Amino acid sequence: MGVKLEVFRMTLYLTFPVAMFWISNQANWFEDYVVQRKRELWPPEKEGQRQELEEFKERIRKQREEKLLRAARQGS
């Protein structure tokens, strides 16, 4: 019983990773499942969102620069 059990376990240990690799590399499955799921989780950006984000980053950058300028003037 011991040898048969070990052969079964070794077959299972080798078959499972190979099967998972084969399944995950199927182009149809990848397109249907993974890409669709990614689009559900992270929908494409709208035009206005990108512009608002850039404006926000610019405001924050200007605030930091002004703060650094004030600190530099006070330290001089």
Folded structure, characterized:
InterPro entries: Pet100 (IPR018625). GO terms for molecular function: unfolded protein binding. Belongs to the PET100 family. The protein is mainly α and 76 residues long. The chain has two domains: 1-44; 46-76. The protein has helices spanning 2-24, 27-41, 47-75. The termini are far apart. 0% of the residues are buried. The mean pLDDT is 88.
What is the helix/strand order?
HHH
Main sheet, how many strands, which sense, barrel? none
How large a portion of the residues is in β-strands, by DSSP E? under 5%
Q: How far is it from the N-terminal to the C-terminal residue, by CA?
A: 86 Å
Kindly state the number of beta strands: 0
Low-confidence stretches: none
Cα-atom Rg, whole angstroms? 28 Å
Helical content class: over 70%
How many distinct helices?
A: 3
Inertia-based shape: elongated
What does the average pLDDT come to?
A: 88
* Class from secondary-structure proportions: mainly alpha
What are the SSEs and their pairings?
Elements: H1 2-24, H2 27-41, H3 47-75
In short:
Its main location: membrane. The chain is mainly α and 76 residues long.
Name its key features.
76 residues; 88% helix; 3 helices
